[in-house]
């Protein structure tokens, strides 16, 4: 029995899993960034209220 290369379906599944994992990481990173950006204006508003 000579070693056969992995079937195309397995390769496609592995690529799909890797791409989905990367996209999930990017989504969580983007969500964290937007949360940080949303927090900053509130701090600036608090500073303005402090000036008043």
UniProtKB/TrEMBL annotation:
Entry keywords, A to Z: Membrane, Transmembrane, Transmembrane helix
Positions of transmembrane segments: 6-24
Domain of life: Eukaryota
Name under which the protein is recorded: Uncharacterized protein
Organism: Cirrhinus mrigala (Mrigala)
Biological classification of the source: Eukaryota, Metazoa, Chordata, Craniata, Vertebrata
């Amino acid at each position: 029995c000579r070693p056969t290369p992995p079937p195309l379906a397995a390769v496609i599944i592995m690529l799909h899993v890797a791409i989905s994992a990367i996209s999930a990481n990017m989504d969580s990173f983007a969500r964290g960034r937007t949360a940080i950006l949303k927090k900053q204006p509130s701090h600036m508003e608090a500073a303005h209220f402090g000036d008043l």
